[in-house]
Amino acid sequence: MLSRRHEVALLHPDLDRVLAVDGKRGGATLPVVPDEWPDHRDLVAATGDPGAVLAAPAERRADGTVTNVLRGSSAGIGRVGARWVAVDDLDHAGAAVAVRRAVTAVAEGARGAGWPDWFGAGWRPAVDDWVAGNCADLGLTPTGPAEITKMWGLSAVLRRPVTGPRGPADVWFKATCARFHDEPAITAVLHELVPDLVPGLLGIDTDRAWMLMEPVVGIDDEQPGTPAAVARALARVQRETLAGLAALQAAGAPDRGAASTIEELRTVLHDSVELPLMTAQQRGAARELEPWLMESVQLLAGSGLPDTLSHGDLHLGNAGTGSGGPVIFDWTDACLAHPLLDVRHLAASAAAGAPAGGGEAAAAAVRAAHAELWRPDFPQIDDDRYWEAAGVVELVFTAISYEHIQRAQPEVSRWELGGVIVDILDRLIRLHAARG
């Protein structure tokens, strides 16, 4: 991933000034957020304006500095030692350029700038009205304002506290970008097919790619339940949606089976948007892997295991605990693919989160738990040849996913996930070399 150092530019409501603090030499500089991965709440806290909202996609300069531009809710100053200054009075010219570009785009509106709707001034009131209407229909009463927990080029997520027949709770709103416009429709089909394995769906607007969901323990406090339980839930999703694959495809889940993977692998190796980030040596080494990668895809495709619904990015952060046990959420990358790809990704997540020295055992536990439901009908689920091939193909699959995302992003936002494809190709190069 590309390095990043975040600064925050709070625009005055009149868009003619920006909030600044004293720099090391006494000039005007933007406040800095120490976290390399701040969420929307961190950015707002740095401004001192609780009503501030991101007004533009963040921009990254060549030195790794990321400028996050927010629109202020009032002319008051809530940060100690800060002051309003003209944009041209900022110490760093790069920051001034990013802020001026955002001001121009804010004046044009999000769509005029080619940005997702949530960067537009009228988006939030429309969301608040829609959420309130759905809550009223369900007998839920909001007990506080909605809080933006995440907002970037791919999605926006808000949390709204409510109370109802079962007492106080939070409801979660999510909007997705054009690339993932079908996530609400796919989630709705899943809610019909496996209602106990996905978050409760309280409302959807497929035209605007909006959905409102019940809370899931683990979204905010990172307690998703045991990896083995999540693996069993994954196996149930895969098996119990087999009869509903046509409905999932009709809702927008693409077919990412072997044929699609082989075709798109060629794009990653020969025409990736991240090729400029690679050295000539890296590019050459990655392209030399093509026969081995194709062979791995074909070996896995010949396993006799049917393609199933695939989550597409199943790590432990995308699982939690609902009223009846483990649930899986964030079906942004949902598609049809080989069933071992998701469990391979989950096993890697479990291994990464295990105590020192416990990674191999954690991954093995995930594999074993997932195989329980598959083994009676498909004993080849235990074949080590397919498990090893899935480890290679899962990396290929993930690189293709990020290629899709990068191509769907405005160029100004590609830095957010920049370097991921390069990192994956480097891992494949090392994996191939280790085979001897």
From TrEMBL:
InterPro entries: Aminoglycoside_PTrfase, Kinase-like_dom_sf
Domain of life: Bacteria
Domain Aminoglycoside phosphotransferase span(s) in chain numbering: 170-372
Keyword tags: Transferase
Residues that span the membrane, as ranges: none
GO MF, one annotated term: transferase activity
Protein name: Phosphotransferase
Organism of this sequence: Nakamurella alba
Classification of source organism: Bacteria, Bacillati, Actinomycetota, Actinomycetes, Nakamurellales
